[in-house]
Design brief:
The complex is a heterodimer of chains A (about 350) and B (about 190). Chain A has about 350 residues and is of the alpha+beta class. Chain A is built from 13 helices and ten strands. Chain A has an eight-stranded antiparallel β-sheet. A two-stranded antiparallel ribbon of chain A has the order 6-7. Chain A is globular, with a radius of gyration of 21 Å. Chain B is about 50% helix and about 5% strand. Chain B has helices spanning about 30-35, 40-50, 50-60, 90-95, 105, 110-120, 135-160, 160-180; strands at about 15-20, 20-30. The chains are: A alpha+beta (about 350), B mainly alpha (about 190). Bound molecules: zinc ion (2 copies). One zinc ion binds near residues 9 and 29 of chain B.
């Protein structure tokens, strides 16, 4: 399933789930210490080990030579979250590759901070299935490659914060209720105290970025993959209930105000002729909230996710081919949003 | 909430650090996070966050100098330990927060438990185990066979059985040649 196309569990609050596994080759220096020749050899070896002569796998996965893509094309992949932004921004000639499944659920980055970074995404809250996807790809590679593993420290990674399982499980959560209700700071502080890492804007003077928060585990050593996922999931289920509760309460108290805000946001998305990325993200957040409250029955969470994934600066630029001014980009973005909404039948 | 490092910009990155069972919170803005080696995007943040703790917890970097919250390593850290495979020193590891290769873990082994206790609150992996790949099993068998042959060669020389010794030497050479092909890259 594709995070920005398909519908997942708890998608009124959870946009996507992702599991990432880091692996390295035993005999080769980590990417930050590789010369070009070593990097090329490592990349070739990993690609060969993954595809072998498996025609099915060759059909299912696309090999992308990131060095041969333009910066815009690479950033567009990052906006769809298929590769990391670091990898997208890294210069040419570093033998960066990605193997991306056709449904865009699994991608394997080569020569990022580690030799191999497998990431698996699912729509909504579905960490188990995301983990399964990553595990499958890892086991194909581990069967064929001399992977760096230590009896005591587990999977060896360039950075000690990944050592052990090499796993980072995360979700992208949409928390407009907690934000509007003034409870986002306490919530995030609470998550941090419990040992999770949170990425997103919050606080009194913060410019919101669509009330999106990425929440992940911090530790990778001394805890099993399954326990880690279960801990995260248990916490997230509570978070989802809190967010839903606040939304209901806000709507109960001021239904007209909320409806007005949602319908105005929707109308703007459907008719604006110029739109910055920031404004779009903000309006989509409000529309997403309205959808969850049942105010926009013809719209699905996946419709909004698709818009999120396709209106970043690089994606807009890429769709147009030639270089654009910011105003041209804002115009193209407004058009793209209108088209996508129309196509979703809303 | 303001960034704890510059005290100017909005903090967008929120993490805790566990050491000796105690957790502390940290909040950074995008640009400080970048300077500390944390990628600025949501997507890659989790991949590179390590550098923050890497330099901070090891006491060598500047990440936490202003907070004073992270104790530096004791004075008695030997600074000249070098990984025999990649040539990275422990000092460089302290500075960048990144290992140079998998062998660094063995080379710095005596110094790593405190590092992992600070970063991870733990020193031992209990998750999935890696099953050795075909290539790894082959390499293991090869190295066992080689040490057997070398032992036999030593015996043959001691017994002045030169015919036998020559035969063993040939076999060792052949095995070593066969073994270097998949292993070549290790020498770079
Ligand atoms: Zn700052
Ligand atoms: Zn090394």
């Amino acid at each position: 399933m594709t995070w920005y196309i398909d519908q997942g569990p708890d998608s009124d609050v959870m946009i996507s789930s992702r599991v990432r596994l880091a692996r390295n080759l035993e005999q080769v220096p980590f990417p930050h210490r590789m010369d070009a020749q070593t990097a090329r050899k490592a990349a070739d070896e990993i690609v060969k080990a993954f595809f072998q002569d498996d025609t099915e796998r060759k059909r299912h996965y696309l090999l992308v030579d990131l060095d041969s893509l333009s910066l815009e094309d690479r950033l567009a992949l990052a906006e769809k979250r298929l590769i990391s932004e670091d990898l997208a921004k890294a210069g040419d000639g570093s033998f960066h590759r990605a193997m991306i499944s056709r449904d865009e659920s699994v991608s394997i980055m080569i020569n990022e901070e580690d030799h191999i970074r497998i990431q698996s995404m699912q729509p909504g809250l579905n960490l188990e299935q995301a983990f399964d996807g990553a595990k499958q790809a890892a086991s194909i590679l581990e069967r064929e490659l001399p992977v760096a593993y230590h009896e005591k420290y587990g999977y060896l990674t360039a950075c000690p914060t990944n050592t052990g399982t090499g796993m980072r499980a995360s979700v992208m959560a949409h928390l407009p209720g907690l934000a509007m209700g003034g409870r986002i700071k306490d919530t995030v502080d609470g998550l941090i105290k419990l040992g999770f890492a949170v990425r997103g804007h919050y606080g009194e003077h913060s410019k919101s970025q669509g009330n999106l928060f990425q929440i992940s585990n911090q530790l990778t050593l001394g805890i099993s993959e399954e326990d880690l996922i279960n801990d995260l999931k248990r916490m997230l289920q509570q978070l989802i209930e809190q967010e839903r509760g606040v939304r209901r309460e806000l709507y109960r108290r001021q239904p007209l105000l909320l409806e007005d805000r949602v319908m105005r946001a929707f109308a703007t998305l459907k008719s604006a002729r110029l739109m910055t990325h920031e404004e779009a993200t903000e309006l989509l957040s409000t529309v997403r909230l309205g959808m969850a409250l049942g105010l926009l029955p013809n719209l699905q969470p996946s419709d909004v996710n698709r818009i999120y994934a396709l209106i970043g600066p690089a994606s807009i630029q890429k769709a147009h081919g030639q270089a654009m001014t910011p105003a041209e980009r804002d115009s193209a973005r407004a058009t793209a949003v209108r088209d996508l909404l129309e196509r979703s039948g809303a | 909430m303001l960034c704890e490092r510059c005290q100017k910009q909005e903090a967008t990155i929120h993490v805790t650090q566990t050491r000796q069972g105690k957790t502390t919170e940290h909040h950074f803005c995008d640009s400080c996070a970048r300077e500390l080696g944390i990628g600025h995007s949501i997507t890659d943040y989790f991949g590179t966050i390590g550098n923050l703790f890497g330099s901070g917890m090891l006491g060598g970097g500047s990440a936490f100098n202003h907070t004073g919250g992270i104790p530096a390593f004791g004075a008695a850290v030997p600074r000249n330990i070098t990984c025999p495979r990649c040539g990275q020193t422990f000092e460089q590891f302290r500075h960048t927060g990144l290992f140079g290769c998998s062998q660094c873990y063995t080379a710095f082994a005596d110094l790593l438990d405190p590092v992992f206790r600070r970063v991870q609150g733990n020193t031992r992996h209990i998750g999935h185990k890696h099953e050795p790949s075909e290539a790894q099993l082959r390499a293991e068998r090869l190295s066992t066979r080689l040490s057997e042959l070398k032992h036999a060669l030593k015996l043959a020389v001691d017994e002045e059985n030169y015919e036998q010794a020559a035969r063993l030497r040939d076999e060792i050479r052949q095995l070593q040649q066969a073994g270097t092909q998949p292993d070549e890259r290790g020498k770079t």
